[in-house]
Each structure stands twice: as structure tokens, then as C-alpha cells.
Amino acid sequence: xxxxPPAVSGHGHDDVTYSDARLVRWRTVQPDGPxxxxxxxxxxxxxxxLVQFIEPxxxxxxxxxxxxxRSCQPYLPPRLGVQLHPR
Length: 87
Fold this sequence. Notes:
With 87 residues, the protein is mostly beta strands. It has one domain (2-86). Helix content is 0%, strand content 54%. It is built from no helices and seven strands. Residues 6-10 have low confidence and may be disordered.
């Protein structure tokens, strides 16, 4: 499962999108709101995108995980690609 914590208390909100080859799920997280969860998926390639709307500007982030053919273990984590785009 994938979890996303709430935005910084009292500032803006976050839009979080999970996607893989067959599914797209979108959530909005409010300050001081509950943690959101995305259910476990077996797809080898998975994406998590974040858009955070705060007073100084908009922050965009994208995480791409590529899982191997074997199960993910602490000593063999998935390959991750991270992009961060401030403002």
C-alpha cells in the first residue's frame, strides 16, 4: 500500500494521483486531514504524482517505481525515479 501524509498544517492542500498500467486513483488531502492510502497493486511499473498548492507557489513531484520480477525485499528495493518541480 502507498500512503501520503497530510500537507503542512494550515497551508494549502495536496492533490495526489496513483497510476499504473490499468488503474488511476486521485485524492485531495487537506491540511490536518487524515492520511490517505492506495491499495497494494501487483503492477511492475507504478507512479505517484503530487501537486501541492501553497502560498509561495505550486510544488509538483513525480515518483516512478519499477519492481523486479521477484518480490520486493528490504535488501532489494524497487528502482525509483524522482522528479521535483518547484513553482
